[in-house]
Design a protein that fits this description.
Blueprint (H helix, E strand, L loop, with lengths): L16 H12 L10 H15 L10 H8 L8 H7 L7 H14 L4
Length: 111
């Protein structure tokens, strides 16, 4: 492969936001709380967070770019480029990956 690029390493399955919500709910055996927050408040909070991080020179995890991702109706991580250039094929699907991740976090005391 070429390397040096940006790649999505995603399974080939397409998952909409409702299915992702259900997958998290099933793996975590809980019901996440849907909290409607107005877009202007999210944008203002992310901008404020970015300003507070300016002295550190680091980009905060919660920023205006992440607000755009949060507000997207659906988005898709396409692994075609990784498959074509790196010959990468995911061996773990969404549900299995979420379960393994959850179990690892739980076993290491992070949850």
């Amino acid at each position: 492969g070429q390397g040096g690029g940006i790649y999505n390493v995603a399974a080939s399955e397409k998952v909409d936001m409702v299915s992702l919500y259900e997958a998290f709910r099933n793996v975590f055996k809980s019901r996440p709380i849907k909290l409607p927050i107005p877009q202007f408040l999210l944008t203002f909070a992310s901008w404020t967070n970015e300003m507070l991080h300016l002295p550190t020179g680091r980009t905060p995890v919660f920023n205006r770019g992440k607000v755009g991702e949060l507000l997207a109706v659906n988005w898709l991580a396409d692994g075609t480029k990784a498959k074509r250039e790196l010959e990468f094929t995911a061996r773990v699907g969404l549900m299995s990956g979420l379960e393994k991740t959850y179990n690892w976090y739980k076993a290491h005391g992070w949850l």
